[in-house]
Specification:
Layout lengths: L29 E4 L4 E6 L5 E7 L6 E6 L2 E3 L2 E6 L7 E7 L2 E2 L4 E2 L14 E2 L33 E3 L22 E4 L1 H5 L13 H4 L2 H10 L3 E4 L3 E3 L3 H5 L10 E7 L10 H12 L3 E6 L16 H9 L25 H16 L5 E4 L2 H4 L1 E2 L2 E2 L4 H8 L7 E4 L19 E4 H12 L5 H8 L3 H4 L9 E4 L8 H4 L35 H20 L3 E5 L30 H19 L13 E2 L4 E2 L1 E4 L8 H4 L6 E6 L17 E6 L5 E4 L8 E7 L10 E2 L4 E4 L3 E8 L6
Parallel strand pairs: 12-13, 12-23, 13-16, 16-17, 17-20, 20-21, 21-22, 22-23
Antiparallel strand pairs: 1-2, 2-6, 3-4, 3-7, 5-6, 7-11, 8-9, 10-11, 14-15, 18-19, 24-25, 26-27, 27-28, 28-33, 29-32, 30-31, 30-33
Helix pairs in contact: 10-11, 14-15
Amino acid sequence: MSRQQPVSHSVAPDVQRKSRVTEGLPFPLGATWDGLGVNFALFSAHATKVELCLFDSSGQVELERIELPEYTDEIWHGYLPDAHPGVIYGYRVYGPYDPENGHRFNPNKLLIDPYAKQLVGKLEWSEALFGYTIGHPDEDLSFDERDSAPFVPKAKVIDPAFTWGTHRRPHVPWNETIVYEANVRGMTMRHPAVPEELRGTFAGMMNSQMVQHLQSLGVTSIELLPVHAFANEPHLLEKGMNNYWGYNTIGFFAPHAPYLASGKISEFKEMVARLHHAGLEVILDVVYNHSAEGNERGPTLSMRGIDNSTYYRLMPDNKRYYINDSGTGNTLDLGHPCVLQMVTDSLRYWATEMGVDGFRFDLATILARHHDGFDERHGFLVACRQDPVLSKVKLIAEPWDCGPGGYQVGGFPPGWAEWNDQFRDDVRAYWRGDEGKLPELARRLTASGDHFNQRGRRPNASVNFITAHDGFTLRDLVSYNHKHNQANGEGNNDGHDHNLSWNHGHEGPTRDPEIRELRLRQMRNMLSTLVFSQGTPMLLSGDEFGRTQKGNNNVYCQDNELGWIDWNLDDEGRSLLDFTRRIISLRRAYPILRRGRFLVGLYNEDLGVKDVTWLSPSGEEMTEDNWHDPHARCLGMLMDGRAQPTGIRRPGEDATLLLIVNSHSETVNFLLPEVAQGTGWVRLVDTSQPEQRSAELHEFGSDFAVCSRSLLLFELQRPARPM
């Protein structure tokens, strides 16, 4: 049964209409200052009335309510000629309260503008936030009349002006991109150079020593975990915890308020400008698949109260309930043009006004799912590809979710890059010593052409990673057989169990020198595999020096020293950091390691070369028997720099490199192959001897003792050119 209850006004009648208001315009959506006044526009297809609520500067006292006077093409709008930046506001939206038909309007609940550019005040959890009465026998079918305004953040009208000066975007080519995944708080909370009052903020991220670390490391693009305004879940607050990662958005246009040390939007822009000046791109991890409003028992904070049946995907046979492909209670419906518009408007805003260079989309499969499944021609993907702004920024999909047909690695269309979890799993399994992994390893070393080499997609479409925020850190990957998430208070039942990790003989920290040395070597092995593979490498912040989370592989709620990076490095950390810098510098120095075309192993008759040749320890090309030998764990990858680098049929002029990997527990003698136009091999990297930097020439046909569980990279020495 549909109900519409009167809202209990908490403002005096004589101040409710003191502001002048005119019709205004239905565009742009949100609150827009034009230099004279502010235009307010809000989409709702099913509302019967919308009130704009204005608050004092503290956001605590509601000063007046103004009914938006016009309704055009499902947009409610009005113009306040006397308003200016700094105005604090929210909405009350009237309409049917009919959950069984998908409508949950309740004007007693103050609502956040989905287009709000800044939020002020904290979300204080109270039963008044819920559109229904908690504990009522009819549950969410009941109607709650308490005012939620004291407990919700309010929107703030901003002045978007910012002087970018001589600002230039880095425009890093895809084949040169090295992504560094980081959390604003995790990066800055324990960094000794960041002043305490700036820790956990964008101001802390732009600290000169922080920027210098990223520059010296050699990464090109920092990918920040969610910075959109997000909420802490009540069950975490009850346990004294916070949502550390931020995957619980309440505002797609507003930066998370606690990340603004100055309280000004310009702080984010200044961070971007400083990172750009250092040659670093900024990529945002964005969460458009769901919101913080949860399922039918969740709070009414914004879109649920504005137009629930439009913004969310509801069960077709009972619209009281939500489709939950995100696993968090609700799923945004990007099949609706106005929801799609909100998402693309948000992306364009961050790409233009806020200056960011790309986006990584959390659970991206949801964004392209119709009711009958994933569709690469979904309006969202089509919109991104044809949009003059979005088609030019970096777009990275997390190509899976928990809905039907949710796993789509390689299934996104041209123009997209994708997180490649098969690289993660196959490389982990190989270095753990699992049997029969050579065929999979070869595919991952060559940018997973089995998934991405189609329709003109390039190797950079495969975003390779060993570790990410979700899971073990690199050090924990080599130190624990099992997760240790007891600190999360969920009985160690949260987080992944399929970690493909190995503790090398002892669970957790140890003083055993042999285990410690082997763990360090394994970290070097995996870092080198990541950096020397074709595709786009992504490094988890802190892995460059072996940070630990003490075996916790799900620190989503650990906004403390367990989740934050410890910048106080010991000798092992400093050694690993030096090694990481060196291998990244090699990737940047040798174009053959980041080719723009897939290495496929076909013989080029015109040039007389193969772009890649796979070698057994005998120095001969791998046979079918070699590939299918479950006990084979040593492989050579010969990348010939003479192979054509582009579609133009001309020889390449890159260096020729030989990569050798050995996950055996014993030393393997590898016969170094003879290559035309070369005189021998010079070793560039040996993970068993990380400090070694020898120019010694190793002759063709000589046996090289490849240490157990190690990786080597050689460069072909060519004859000196005549003067």
